[in-house]
Amino acid sequence: MTVDHCFESFASQFPFPIKKAIRVPSSIEITSLTKADAPTVAEFVYLLIDEFAPGAGPDRRAMTAIAQEVLPLESVSGFLAKIDSTPVGVMLINECAAIYAGGKFGEISELYVRPEYRSKGVAAPLLDAAGRHAEDSGWKRLEVGAPNQPAWERTLKFYLREGFEEVGPRLRKLISQEG
Fold first, then answer.
1. CB under 8 Å to 106, separation ≥6 — which residues?
2. What does the angle CA 17 – CA 121 – CA 4 come to, to the nearest 5 degrees?
3. What is the enclosing helix (H) or strand (E) of 79?
4. Angstrom distance (rounded) from CA 44 to CA 63
5. What is d(CA 48, CA 159) in angstroms, rounded to the nearest whole number?
6. 42: buried, middle or exposed (CB in 10 Å: 19+, 13-18, 0-12)?
7. Which of the 8 DSSP states describes residue 78?
8. What pLDDT is attached to residue 25?
9. What is the mean pLDDT of each run of 10 residues along the chain (179 residues)?
10. CA-CA distance, 24 to 6, in Å (whole number)?
């Protein structure tokens, strides 16, 4: 009897639908981003922005153009998580420098994992790759901005479990590009 047959037999006993959980293989492939990954990166960042503020992000075509412009920059690095050659997560890191940080450091600007793969061990290998990249680059630290709390409490708890510490809120000011 196959595993799928056992599951179907088990699930048929209930008066409501039971979904089979996605099993994440022990092998998650992490690759460095290239300009060729721009469409995938743009789609994932679009979905990330849409989760935080539905409908507020630029259109997908504009995001792809931005990704094609940003990915080749020397100060930008990133990683793609794949399972069975299918992209399931992405992380972008920017090199920054500050006196308070002791010199150069990395800032995680985007981290997205497809919802069906969350809490399944995909983001941690992306952070591991970022940590190795930070060491190789001679950075003193990695920083990340956590989304608004308490709505995104799971995200904050994830970063804390991964060794990050809370240091306060992040603020922004948009700069007008009008002539």
1. 77, 93, 94, 95, 96, 130, 133, 134, 137, 139, 141, 142, 143
2. 35
3. strand 76-83
4. 10
5. 17
6. buried
7. E
8. 52
9. 44 46 69 96 94 84 95 97 96 96 95 95 96 95 83 83 85 77
10. 19
